[in-house]
Amino acid sequence: MTGKPKLADGHRPQGASSEVIRDINRRIVLNLIRTRHPISRADLARLSGLQRSTVSLIVEQLIQEHWVLEGPTGRLPRGRRPTFLRLNDERVIIAVDLRPSQTTVALADANGKFISQEIIVTSSDAQAAMDGLIASIQRIVTASRRKKIEGVGISLPGRYDHSVDRLVFAPNLKWRDVDIRNPIAAATGLEVEVENAANACVLAAVWFDHMEQCRNLVVVTVSEGIGTGVWANGKLVRGLNGMAGEFGHVPLDSQGPPCGCGGRGCWEVFGSNRAALRYYLESGAQSADLSFPDLLSRADHGDPRAAKALETMAHYLGRGMRMIVAGLAPERIIVVGDLTRSWHRFGSLIEAEVQAQVLPGGCVPRLVPAYEDGMARLRGTVALVLQKHFGAVSEAQG
Ligand SMILES: [Zn+2]
Fold this sequence. Notes:
By secondary structure, the protein is an alpha/beta fold. It has helices at 18-36, 41-48, 52-64, 126-143, 181-188, 197-208, 267-271, 273-282, 292-300, 304-328, 343-355, 376-390, and strands spanning 68-73, 83-87, 91-98, 102-109, 114-121, 148-156, 159-161, 166-169, 192-196, 217-222, 226-232, 235-236, 332-336, 366-369. The radius of gyration is 23 Å and the shape is globular. The structure holds zinc ion.
C-alpha cells in the first residue's frame, strides 16, 4: 500500500451504507498493519487519514478476532510509549504449487513467511494426484492443530474456469475437466481457492513485492511451457472461461514442432525450458535425462553448445514478448522460472530482441526477474486466500 488509501470517514461515498464504510476502513487498517508492521495506532491514523477513535475501534475488533497482536512497546524519547501492532502469525494458509512433475504443499503465515513444506510427485492420473494432494494437506492440518488455518490456495499449470469449477486447459498436465476445488474442500473442510500459476505470480508481485503502483504488468512464467498472467488497469484479466493470457499458445511458426495443445509452432515450443533442451539435443550434445538446471550449469561451466541452446531460447522468449508489448503495453514484464538464476545470460538478449521491434509511439517495458523466484507461485496462493479478508488485490491499493 502506498500513499494515502481512500478515505472513508469524513468523505462518505454517496449512497454507501455504514457497514460498507466500516468494511472499507477495516481493510485499510488491516492492509496497513500487513504492509507496515510493526506499527502504532498513531501511525495507522496518520497514514490512513482516519480519525484516531475510528482506528482504535477497528484495532480492538481485529485484536478480539485474533487477526492482530499487540506488542512490544515502542520507545520514544518522551511522552507516551506506543504499542506496536502486527498480524497474528498463528493464522496460517496452506499454499499448493501444482506442477506437471511435482507438487509443493507448504504452510505459510499471514505475513507470507513459510513455516514448512513438503514435495510430492504429481501423478499423471488426475484422481491419483488429487488423492495424494488431499493426503498431504491433511498431514499439514494434523501438524498445525494449534493454528487457525484460513484456507488452501492452489496454483495450477493451466486455466481454471471458476464459473464451473473445472480445469479447462492444462496441456502440460494432460488433465481435463477436473474439479480441483470441491473434492479438496469436502475432504478437508477448508475453503479452497485455485488460480492459474502465472496469475498467482501476478498476485504475489502486487501483494508482497510493493508493485501496487504498477497498473499494467505481465508475468511470464517459463518452465515446461510458457504461461502469462495479465494485470491490466490494476485488475487481473481472466477472460471468457478463464482462458485469457495464453500467449504461450500463439503460433510463431505454424509449420513448427508440435505442441501439447494440439497446434504447431506455439511460442512455448520455441521459448520454454523444454525447447532449450531440444536445441541442445539437436546440436549433437549428450543430453540423456538432462534437466534444465543441468543445462544452465553446463553453460556456466563453459559448454558452448549449452550456451548456444540458452541463447536460442532467449531469442525466442524476446520474440514472443513482442506480442505482449504490442498487445498490452505493460509497464513491466516480470519473468518467473529457473532461467532467472542465469539472468546475466538471458536478460540483455531478451531485451534486445523486444527492442528490435517496438511500434512507433510504443515503449519498451522494464523487464525484471521475479523476486524470490522459486516461491512466487506459492506466495501468490497466500495472497489468493488472504484477499477475501483484506480485500481483492486491486482494492488494496492506495
Ligand atoms: Zn500450443
